[in-house]
Amino acid sequence: MMAKAFACGLAGLTLGEEERAFLRDEKPWGVILFARNIQDAEQIRRLTDSVCEALERPDAAILIDQEGGRVQRIRPPVVRSYPPAARFGDIYKKDPVSGIEAAQLAAKLMALDLIELGINVDCLPVLDVPEPGSHDIIGDRAYGDTVEMVVTLGGAVMAGLSAGGVTPVIKHLPGHGRAASDSHEELPVVDADLAALEAVDFAPFRMLAGRASLGIVAHVVYSAVDDAQPATHSSTIIANIIRERIGFDGLLMTDDISMKALSGSPAERSRRAISAGCDIVLHCNGEMEEMRDVANSVPELSGDALTRAEKSLVGCVADEVGNRAFLHERLSQLLGSDRVCE
Predict the structure, then answer these.
(1) In whole angstroms, what is the distance from residue 95 CA to residue 92 CA?
(2) Is the pLDDT of residue 342 over 50?
(3) Which residues belong to any copy of the Glycoside hydrolase family 3 N-terminal domain (predicted)?
(4) Active-site residues: which are they?
(5) Which are the contacts of 38, defined by CB distance < 8 A and separation ≥ 6?
(6) pLDDT in tens, 259-309
């Protein structure tokens, strides 16, 4: 694979000539789609085909945040709507078997939606464990408020996505659930001691690390480990916590470096992330000038990062689809009153 250590967004519904040339010349590892890139199924498929053609990689990584609930980039009528993660937690509390089945089934159905549109990576599951008083940026995106619930349902979602042919991405390493502010708007600082972080925040990632080939790192300061840098820019957190204690050996991406939690220019943010140990810089807003700065600031994938990238999309092959209407009806039964949209 010949690719640079970044993934980028796109400006609109079609691949413009400037974007096409940028992808061809700079060769990002992947592209991430947002609501601004979505109109209908035929348009999405044309867009994803165009990206793969420009990158000269038919299996190029095309990412999306398709969680369900308030974070669902593709919505009806293009695909059905799905509930937030917390709904599966509610079912699980009453009946663990049904909660697990619902979470896995919803993830598989979402994956089947995505793979038909040429999207092969879903930035899901959220493995953060919310703590009392934390910001609601995670909120109902979490599967529960205990490690056991998050691990069990998060693992079910990973299995469902993989069964649908889509690679899951665990986020936000090493844990965003305790943050009291939204990293889209400002830099959160978590002051919990290391024992508390180990027992709660890091635990879901540690328990599922062996099953994950892709992960996103949080723009959060963990003062017990590094009181000067957010995880994205902290070699201490990436090496000692994410790689060693958690044991994550997959491809590590930044969260969107356009977020206000980080300081400095896009180029500075990118260089610091790579220097700290991130494999891929994720830049999402589709602004061409910023994209060029990022592309000029990151290296070509090589060494361990290249090995992780080559392995990251391997092993997710869709099961026999079967009767999708039946699968949706079964999910509706499990959800009760919160039926998926037609």
Answers:
(1) 5
(2) no
(3) 17-300
(4) 184, 255
(5) 13, 44, 73, 74, 75, 78
(6) 998 999 999 999 999 999 999 999 999 999 999 999 999 999 999 999 999
Structure tokens belonging to residue 281:
């810089």
126 sits in the region (left: phi over 0; alpha: psi -120 to 50; else beta) called beta
Which of left, alpha, beta for 213 (phi over 0: left; psi -120 to 50: alpha)?
Answer: alpha
Tally of residues, the chain? 342
Instruction: Return the SS3 of 62.
Output: strand
The conformation of residue 142, written as its DSSP 8-state character, comes to: S
Nearest Cα neighbor of 47 from 97, 9, 101 is 9
- Among candidates 309, 287, 213, which has minimal Cα distance to 4? 309
**Two tokens at 19?**
């974007």
Q: What is the 3-class SS of 156-212, one letter each residue?
A: HHHHHHHHCCCEECEEEECCCCCCCCCCCCCCCEECCCHHHHHHHHCHHHHHHHHHC
Alpha-carbon distance 178 to 201, whole Å? 8
In one letter, which amino acid is 93? K
What the block records as the tokens of 49 is 């085909």
Which residues are paired to 32 by β-bridges?
63
| pLDDT value, residue 317 | 60
E strand spans, the chain: 4-8, 28-33, 61-64, 66-68, 71-72, 121-122, 167-168, 170-173, 189-190, 214-217, 221-222, 251-254, 281-283
Q: By the 8 A CB rule, do 99 and 155 touch? A: no
Using a cut of 0.90, tell me whether the model's pTM lies above it: yes
